[in-house]
Amino acid sequence: MNFRYFTLTVILLTAACSTKTTSITVQPSNTASIIPTILSTKTLPFTPITPTFRPPRPTFDSSGIITQTPATPAQCPQSDPSLIPHLPQEYSTPAVQLEQAILDFLNKGGTPSAVVAALNPVYNFSVDLTNDGLSELVVSEKWLFVFSCAQGKYITRLKVEPEEPGKPLMAIAIKDMNGDNVPELVVREQPPGTIPGMYYQIFTWDGNQFQNVTTPDRSGKHAPALQRENWIFIWGHPKEGGNWEQWAIYDFDNNHTLELILKGGIPASTDEHLYGPWREATQVYAWNGEGFVLSADYLSLPEYRFQAVQDGDNASLAGDFGGALASYQMAIFLPQLVGWSPARAENMQDQILASTAGEPTPTFAPPDPNEYDNLASYAYYRIMLLYLVQGEMREAQRIYDHLQSEFPVGHSGWSYVAMTQAFWAEYLASQNVGLACEKAINYAATHSIEILAYLGNSTETESFYYGGQSLFYTPKDICPFK
Fold this sequence. Notes:
Largest sheet: 5 strands, antiparallel
Number of helices: 11
Radius of gyration: 27 Å
Oligomer: single chain
Structural class: alpha+beta
Order of helices and strands: HHEEEEEEEEEEEHEEHHHHHHHH
Helix content: 25-40%
Strand content: 15-25%
């Protein structure tokens, strides 16, 4: 998706624009959140400001890119454009036989363009990949091959074998993505069986050989069982379209280099849909001077309130305090967000099965009347943390006071107030966020059902009904600052 400039009227808390820094360390995460803030009609216990919503920061300063000067043209065999290739057409033909047949044709004087015409011109190309003014031949039939000239003859410069026979590799794009005047070659492959999603690699010419400049995410977040060395993988389909419409290449972060933008996250089968709710996932791979790395990773806007809370927690882990603040505000103030509960999860499954069977759709299950207060109370607690770690003690105090008055003893959401009190007392005594977090974590560990059950999946509370994209919570996740 192209980066959208949201036109919603927005409100940010004053901490979002704070420039103060502290020595507090955030636990590392590769998760980023790009979520707009929202207009609240509820009285706020703080002074709002009117922000601007900006695109993500550039990940790489393109001003330092060194453009490559054209190389000396390689020596090729004398070409004869009248030659017509007779290549194996049966898909069962071994790839090595196709490779040798193409080399024989080229070295007899055949042209790369004649090979492209004889094969599928959609995924086979005759294009200069080495910046010497001569065209290489890119063939993605069964395997991926790149043929080029060297010392008067054609040789195979790059050969990539598919992981599973029958799942062909495809060259899908040839673009100068990092701005050095040498185009990159983007390749993809289908996963085994019927698994929804795609694998991707990016190759570039370094002056001597083609290098894989793909740096996959190894955080363990993205379908770790399906990850392969030197391949990017995104699970699922985009919300609209199938596997074939899940990628794009453009300047996502406005830094004058091109990024590979991948979309997925939506399952293909009815059985997988039962483990929802699902949101479209977007991953952005950007050039960092050495390779293409994960620079942005987010889900589409939340439909359910717990999703907004989880977006805030993800953004907090990534150090994106503005995005975290916006997501927590959505959880508190956006009435369009839907409640979630075990009954709603079961009801959603019944609706999917009824739709598949052509039966009447069951009515929606009523919301859990205690969910909003619990998630709003937790969101206020996390907003207080955001102020505190940015040195905004006055605003943190105001949120702390509001939290206690909004959710008194005996009221839904009180458990988070009690946890916040344990945190606050330690912070006032020690002025140490890490020690204060230990108090909050200890409280969460001894009150795991009250603290964790409304947030997401948790082995502590044996709740797994928040879907396959939900975060898994432990007490340590409640206060991740040190």
